[in-house]
Amino acid sequence: MNILVTGSSGGIGRAVCERFLSLGHTVYGLDLAPAALTHPQYRHFQTDIREESALPELPEVGVLFNNAGAQNSGDDIGHNLRGTINVTEKYIRDNPSLRSVLFNASASAVSGQEFPEYAASKAGLLGYMKNVAIRVAPRGATCNALSLGGVYTPLNDPVVNDPESWRQIMDVTPLKKWMTAEEVADWVIFLTLTNRSMSGQNLLIDNGEHDLIPTFVWPKTDGDPLNRKETKP
After folding, report:
1. Would you say 84 and 22 are in contact if contact means Cβ atoms under 8 Å apart?
2. Terminal Cα distance for the chain, rounded
3. How far is CA 135 from CA 6, 27, 79, 93, 177, in A?
């Protein structure tokens, strides 16, 4: 099956690509960054998904994992929402081979805790996901979203490697852990390949953090344009 993964060079994207490849699928990756892996069944396109004209022509896609995103980039809505819409509309259109679409949203889409534009862009994905689910259902295809809490990726090094920030996070995380990118890949495989009956749903997976005390912890920086402050439990 042809699999398309956006944000394929990052921690989650790379782990998901590797998992699909290990199962014998052909994987296409889209990312602003160069390819992060080499495999005979992997083809990488270094491109900006915000530009519709920059999206490559591909064979019919069976699974689309919309993983690409940016945090506090100055254009989170462009990267996370507009770009994802561009990709989805291009590759689901006139595609009888489509089996499933999955969006990587964020726990912030549910809690509102994080940078304002980031939270808004991810919340927008949830509404768009339901719209896509309605439109692809007549083809027997599913469409869902993952709203993840903390994941061990380089993007989160500022808090993972800061003892005080990490203490605050663990204080409000009942399971006292974060997810690995490989665990995220487990969920992606289940939702896109195994699942045939759940559609239009958002799964919040955050080790219990949201239901206790929704908290966003990030080191404060001087001259922060968002006037963020460290959140203490």
Report:
1. no
2. 46
3. 21, 24, 23, 10, 37
Does 2-152+178-207 carry CATH code 3.40.30.10?
A: no
Distance CA 29, CA 16 (A): 10
The structure tokens 């402050």 sit at 229
Q: pTM here?
A: 0.88
Token couple for 223: 């001259």
Question: Residue 193: beta bridge partners?
Answer: none
Bridge partners (DSSP) of residue 148 are: 205
CA distances from 233 to 146, 160, 227 (A): 25, 17, 19
Tens of each residue's pLDDT in the chain, 233 residues? 999 999 999 899 999 999 999 999 999 999 999 999 999 999 999 999 999 999 999 999 999 999 999 988 999 999 999 999 999 999 999 999 999 999 999 999 998 888 899 999 999 999 999 999 999 999 999 999 999 988 988 888 888 899 999 898 898 889 999 999 999 999 999 999 999 999 999 999 998 877 555 566 667 665 554 444 333 33
Q: Whats the size of the chain, residue-wise?
A: 233
The one-letter amino acid code at 221 reads: T
Closest CA to 121 of 152, 141, 147: 147
Q: In what order do the strands lie in the sheet with 42-46?
A: 42-46, 26-31, 2-6, 63-66, 100-104, 142-148, 202-205
CA–CA separation, 127 vs 120, rounded Å? 11
Domain boundaries, the chain: 2-152+178-207
